[in-house]
Amino acid sequence: MAKRALITGITGQDGSFLTELLLDKGYEVYGVIRRSSSFNTDRIDHLYQDPHEPDTRLRLVYGDLNDSSSLNTILRQIKPDEIYNLGAQSHVRVSFDVPEYTGEVTGLGCVRLLEALREVGIQPKFYQASSSELYGKVLEVPQTENTPFYPRSPYGCAKAYAYYITVNYRESYDLFACNGILFNHESERRGETFVSRKITRAATRIKLGLQNKLYLGNLDAQRDWGYAKDYVEAMWMMMQAEEPDDYVIATGEAHSVREFLDESFSLVDLDWKEYVEEDPRYYRPAEVDLLLGDASKAKRVLGWERKVSFKNLVRIMIDHDLKLAQQELAMQEVATSALASKARWGAS
Ligand code: NAP
Ligand code: F7E
């Protein structure tokens, strides 16, 4: 019988790549989605292309990490073998604006899910999407599973709670529960308000004349950026290991926002210094200056290694966003010529 996986955050970047991976491996995948006034499933729509013949191994259910009763009902009905808790208010800057809400979803959401499985009386494997933001104002370089935490944002603090409660449930209830401490990972599906995608969207739109300027915050911050597709594979590998444990997943290379700009704009033959302006609106009340991970435990125990380099990551994102910008331009041209012919007919 096919294994059943439940994913919270299925509509997000990682949720969509993980769904593809698990369907490829023969799983039945259940995804928790939130009711929204506009469509929010565009990252997984390709898995549902023919509405008359959707992949019946992928099913979406309404629920919310802030609503225990929905989580209880979902677990009772589905009884998954593996749960991947990827749902979160995941934007660090925004977490300073909505700290309490971020604590609810990103922190307490995890314990709601863990309690729901105890109440329903099932023992699925459990993956918690932990983050390098736990290290914040880093106490050691590079960061390993043994580096102490020093979170620097409401998001980081919420993730610290979720990390520890996952460890606590593993130790208290003999649950197969893992924390993947993932460093930044990006892709062509990354949300457009994260710095990597903001840059690749802007570089390609500026190239085609669709945008003039790019406003950014701190250009000196350094991050360990990997490719999201590689990282969801690590999540699955942790869940197949003999013993549940916590793992750092990272590339072992740090690059600054400036280097991300250099790499992106040079791929479209532009000099970013002509277009980028620093805007204090994007500064954070407390910044994380440098993140650099050491994933040797994941390599040794799981055999995990990243496949996509920094340069290739940026290239994948630029190639994708260039096509997107070309489509945008074509649509603008169609709209302009429709308006022009309307004006001609109107004048006669
Ligand atoms: P993302 O694109 O922002 O996706 C977040 C997902 O969480 C979306 O599907 C969102 O649904 C869902 N969500 C938000 N609030 C929810 C709620 N109240 N109940 C249920 N679902 C809710 O994030 P991502 O980049 O894929 O990251 C996946 C997870 O890994 C997150 O927990 C993130 O914090 C963590 N993480 C990410 C990185 C990274 O670099 N990407 C690194 C370390 C850890 P809607 O579509 O409806 O908004
Ligand atoms: O910022 C700087 C910003 O928002 C990266 C999330 O997935 O990874 C992500 O969090 C750096 C920061 O990612 C802009 O100040 C400059 O130093 O892309 P970001 P993040 O904060 O590292 C971790 C691992 C997660 O867990 C999170 O969920 O870039 N920066 N100018 C900017 N950042 C943004 N967003 N926008 C700017 O204009």
Provide a descriptive summary of the structure in words:
The chain has 348 residues and is an alpha/beta fold. Helix content is 44%, strand content 15%. The strands form four sheets. Strands 3-2-1-4-5-6-11 form a seven-stranded parallel sheet, sandwiched between helices. Strands 7-10 form a two-stranded parallel sheet. Helix 2 runs parallel beside helix 4. The radius of gyration is 21 Å and the shape is globular. The structure holds NADP nicotinamide-adenine-dinucleotide phosphate and ligand F7E. NADP nicotinamide-adenine-dinucleotide phosphate binds next to helix 1 and strand 5.
What's this, in brief?
By secondary structure, this protein is α/β, with parallel strands linked by helices. The protein contains 10 helices and 13 strands. The chain binds NADP nicotinamide-adenine-dinucleotide phosphate and ligand F7E.
Topology:
Elements: E1 4-8, H1 13-24, E2 28-33, E3 58-62, H2 68-78, E4 82-85, H3 92-97, H4 99-120, E5 125-131, H5 154-173, E6 177-182, E7 185-186, H6 195-207, E8 214-216, E9 222-223, E10 226-227, H7 228-240, E11 246-249, E12 255-256, H8 257-267, E13 276-278, H9 296-302, H10 310-347
Parallel strand pairs: 1-2, 1-4, 2-3, 4-5, 5-6, 6-11, 7-10, 8-13
Antiparallel strand pairs: 9-12
